[in-house]
């Protein structure tokens, strides 16, 4: 039986490396809980803050779809594919690691921290050619609506990945109610509250809480105060 999972913000793993403070929803590196490995294809959801001028040195990935969404500040990206890029709040970055890629992610600002969501999904195709992409999205397009920022379709809105997954952002006014229509039967939905307080299918959620569940078709949301959300629809199997 598919189980709903509630991950209050305070229940996350917390790692403090000095230059990096990381709140980890799922098991990651030395933090391990067999009950918190993944939600369907969603493997990693890290809420990372990196000090000025610091960052992740050159390291490898393979056969994983890796998404970064800056919430504050600017990330500087470099990879073994020759890409050099700046990713700011209001943008999304994706790497299909495929057969293997090396990259670095650093805080471009020397004085201010950068906060971003680091998200990993298992792909539905192994050993593809590695690729990189990023996109800017308009902030007004998510006011009291779901703004698609990721899908499996290169011709659809947002960046695309090798997985039957859809990501949407929403910024909801206090008291606003809205429904999310599932894109694919059998998929699950994982909601991460970036800011504010909401009810999702009657489940109260506060800032940085996560909630994963398996809806039939439409998911109901009610914002209890001005709130911002990331809604990730992912398959159970791939």
UniProtKB/TrEMBL annotation:
Family under the similarity heading: Belongs to the pirin family.
Pfam families: Pirin (PF02678), Pirin_C_2 (PF17954)
Species of provenance: Dyadobacter endophyticus
Pirin N-terminal domain mapped to chain residues: 12-121
InterPro entries: Pirin (IPR012093), Pirin_N_dom (IPR003829), Quercetinase_C (IPR041602), RmlC-like_jellyroll (IPR014710), RmlC_Cupin_sf (IPR011051)
Name of the featured protein: Pirin family protein
Classification via SUPFAM superfamilies: RmlC-like cupins
Domain Quercetin 2,3-dioxygenase C-terminal cupin: 149-234
